[in-house]
């Protein structure tokens, strides 16, 4: 049975230590290297798609979350406030939206700036009960790939469709295979803000954006402030969870009194689109570790190439090539310890995509013989060709080990 917790331990991707606290995993160097590559990819995809990145703190004053409605509608999922003094209480944020609303209203806004896409890979906290926590799939400290796109009402349809396209692009690069689309709607009860007309309008816009897409409607699964499109995945144990999401919100712009100057000079309220292309780093990696069985595509493999000098005579040649590969941006290691066979097996056990064997003949010729983690091997190649091969695989986010 594939389990990301077991693979995470074997491949030294992350560790959960009871002393740190349940649901508060620590990313080890190998896991952090893979996550860093994924974060850089997502940030670059967003940058090329017109997003502007910000940083905001993972906690804020109690009043901020009273204004946002989180303390009214979401308090059960939040850690209790921290009191510095009688009139100074702080809250670990359960979402980034309130800070991004403050980014929008940091100065006057014009219709010319819309859609204004504010993005951040930011920390947030949920007081999950200890019984539901496990590995990276349910955690209390969450690093969310988040953005809030402030739009005029007539821009919402195109904006949501473009977000769905970006989600598809990111999924293809990462190897995410969605199990389906879900339109999450309001259910019965008092846990939702906003009036019926707002909810109906938002639902209509999302249904229009899903034109031609197979989806299921899920009453009761909406956010407390609006309906959403969720893109579902299924883990190795058959459990369904949401990775990517697009949500419409008419409520927060009202609560934060957000407005922009329209072309005719009038003040208009923007619509807030909450979206995540790949979800939280924790849940994403819980999924990716399982779906790839730890063998990540080359572009986000923790170590991409391990160099194996056959004996001490090639140590210098191996170090020189490792230096060139590092300078070219690769994650590379040199392994001297033990027999060649044991080192090849160890590289493949660690799911390193390529082991580069350097014997006397290769060292003399400035060449490397590559062994792939799937068992294939290539005839010796000049070092420059090896670097060009990696360049191609990384630049195209290829899932295959050979172009
Ligand atoms: Zn949000």
Uncertain regions spanning at least 5 consecutive residues: none
The class by helix and strand makeup works out as alpha+beta
Number of strands: 20
Bound molecules: zinc ion
The CATH architecture assignment of the largest domain turns out to be 2-Layer Sandwich
Q: Average pLDDT, to the nearest integer?
A: 95
Tell me the name of the CATH class of the largest domain. Alpha Beta
**CATH fold group of the largest domain:** BirA Bifunctional Protein, domain 2
Read across the widest sheet, the strand sequence of neighbours is 3-7-8-15-12-11-9-10
Residue share in β-strands: 15-25%
| Helix content, binned percent | 25-40%
Ends apart, CA distance between termini: 31 Å
Counting copies of identical and different chains, the oligomeric state is single chain
Q: CATH-wise, what's the superfamily of the largest domain?
A: Bira Bifunctional Protein, Domain 2
Tell me the count of domains: 2
